[in-house]
Amino acid sequence: MAAESISVIKVRNVLMVTVPPDPDDETVSALQDQVLQAMARYEAKGLVLDISTVQTLDSFFARTVAETVQMVALMGGRTVLAGMRANVAVTVTQLGLTLGGALTALDVDKALDRLNAEPVGRAGK
Amino acid sequence: MNPTLPGEFQIQSEGDIVMARKAVRDAATALGFGLTDVTRIVTAASELTRNIYQYAKSGTMRWRSLNLGGCVGLELVFEDHGPGIPDITRAMEPGFSTGRGLGMGLPGAKRLMDEMSIQSEVGKGTTVQIRKWLKK
After folding, report:
1. Contact map slice: B 40-99 vs A, CB within 8 A
2. Which fold is adopted by the domain A8-112?
């Protein structure tokens, strides 16, 4: 099965990705590759992952997000997860998953505020 | 009766994990589960179908509705003829994995559901049964 197409867009100095509602593993992996390439290409200071339409966030997805957060941090950027739904938050917590110290925000707008408020270069844990 | 129940689905490729999630989402929604419970059930199914794909390469997911003394529930059974689990107690410990996973699949799925049982024999295969009951 072909991966769903993911587009990484750059707005000012921030990368933005809208994660599809029900991505397969291949799509999740492709997302990580594209984000890292775009980080290098655009010298972005941060990444906003819009997960507001995501219905299922399982352990594979969470691991890939956590890895991406760490990789982006090594490249000097910060990641904000934006718009996690309440039911997904409940499930992720009960499943026992952590998302690698990503910042979080209720929506993309607030995510951009968070990135702009964070000092540049002091990335991740 | 309900068109989405009971049902059976073969897991043979990585893409089938997404198809299995869709089938479970439809079945759980049709039974009347709320959004948070549907998400819990779908996520547990995602973990268990991925286990099948990762460890056994192929297997079957079956689902049916339950009605025990007026209590309505959903049962999912995941069956494979893979390598089996040598030590189920350890496999249920959070963080333990013989694969490349987080070790969250089995213990996580148990927390998300009301009931879980595992039968496994090394070299023969594994059957995992999970249930969620509708709260009135």
Report:
1. 40, 42-43, 46-47, 50, 94
2. Transcription Regulator spoIIAA (3.30.750)
